[in-house]
Design brief:
GO terms for molecular function: ATP binding. Residues 11-234 form the ABC transporter domain. It is found in: Cell membrane. InterPro entries: AAA+_ATPase, ABC_transporter-like_ATP-bd, ABC_transporter-like_CS, ABC_transporter_ATP-binding, P-loop_NTPase. By secondary structure, the chain is of the alpha/beta class. Helices cover 33% and strands 28% of the residues. The chain is built from 11 helices and 13 strands. Bound molecules: adenosine-5'-triphosphate (ATP). The site of adenosine-5'-triphosphate (ATP) has 12 residues, from β2 and α1. Residues 20, 23, 25, 43, 45-51, 192 line the site of adenosine-5'-triphosphate.
Length: 299
């Protein structure tokens, strides 16, 4: 057996760039996703998530850089049913029932999964007779998920699939996706929701201004994003010296007080106590949500 065989990544993006006129939507993005991973693309509005996903699906072409899906050009990967997508809106006919919608889509494939099976896996067998126009937003998304399962893709891509759903609908939707992913399918989804990425992804890739700013498991990213704030009374603090301390991300002086954002509050305190006349110390943990915003907006 050849134990040195290299596994072809599910997704390989290298030096990806996408521009729209003067706007650079994706700016030299590199990413490799292994088969079987559940990856969240997390980033604020305009970070470049949709532009990247469109290139992965072969819906648009990069200005430069390369996209491979299971080693293939995305257009070929889509044609072979290796990749399928659940988009946020569009693509459903209101007057058809859920069952008719899936049957119609299935008729377009040469060798689709059985209709009953995909309804079951998307958790919508119980509403198969309901008209699409009467389905809630969450049910319509599970219907789109069922449609995406018809070719039995190896990679499922979802672009902000739960926007506008309430908490219960989001949970039902993700449980269906997660149960399906347990069978080994690779899943990549874009989201604004930190909690959604945290709960449902094995790996979080944070995007800001078209590039990756953090990449790791939820707990690794939490570690990267988490930080402390040290405050002390120190008139005329030497801001340059403080900013040069290990792990310090910002220093601000307001009146007699200095506020230092850092990853290692112990070493900042040690410095302040031994090298400066600072007093009245206050150490607080930055809230994770604030830290996420700091990481994705650079504030
Ligand atoms: N067709 C287009 N024409 C012009 N500019 C575009 C186009 N599509 C995207 N952009 C711009 O590219 C940037 C990245 O947009 P993109 O939709 O990829 O971000 P996103 O992370 O998916 O954002 P959101 O979370 O709001 O969907 C934004 O500045 C956006 O305005």
């Amino acid at each position: 057996m050849d134990t040195t065989a290299v596994i072809t990544p599910a997704v390989e993006l290298s030096g990806l760039v996408k521009t729209f006129g003067t706007v650079t939507a994706v700016n030299g993005l590199d990413l490799s996703v292994a088969p079987g991973e559940v990856v969240a693309f997390l980033g604020p509005n305009g970070a470049g998530k949709t532009s990247t996903i469109d290139m992965m699906l072969g819906l648009s072409r990069p200005a430069s850089g390369a996209v491979r899906v299971f080693g293939l050009d995305p257009v070929d990967a889509v044609a072979q049913g290796r990749i399928a997508a659940v988009m946020q809106t569009g693509g459903l006919l209101k007057d058809l029932t859920v069952l008719e919608t899936v049957q119609l889509s299935a008729s377009l494939y040469r060798d689709p999964r059985p209709v009953g099976e995909v309804l079951e896996r998307a958790g919508i067998s119980g509403i198969s007779g309901r008209r699409v126009g009467k389905c809630s937003g969450g049910e319509q998304q599970r219907l789109r998920f069922a449609l995406a399962l018809l070719p039995e893709p190896d990679l499922l891509v979802l672009d902000e699939p739960t926007t506008g759903m309430d908490v219960e609908a989001r949970r039902a939707f993700w449980n269906a996706i997660r149960q399906d992913a347990a069978r080994g399918r690779t899943v990549l989804f874009a989201t604004h929701y930190l909690d959604e990425a945290d709960t449902y992804a094995d790996r979080i890739v944070m995007i800001r201004k078209g590039t990756v700013v953090a990449d790791g498991t939820a707990s690794e990213v939490r570690g990267m994003a988490a930080g402390r704030q040290v405050r002390a009374v120190l008139p005329g603090a030497d801001q340059v010296a403080l900013a040069a301390l290990p792990g310090v991300t910002s220093v601000a002086q307001r009146g007699d007080s200095v506020t230092i954002e850092c990853s290692d509050s112990d070493s900042v305190l040690r410095h302040l106590i031994t090298r400066t006349p600072a007093h009245d110390f206050e150490v607080t943990s930055r809230n994770l949500e604030d830290a996420f915003i700091a990481l994705t907006t650079g504030e």
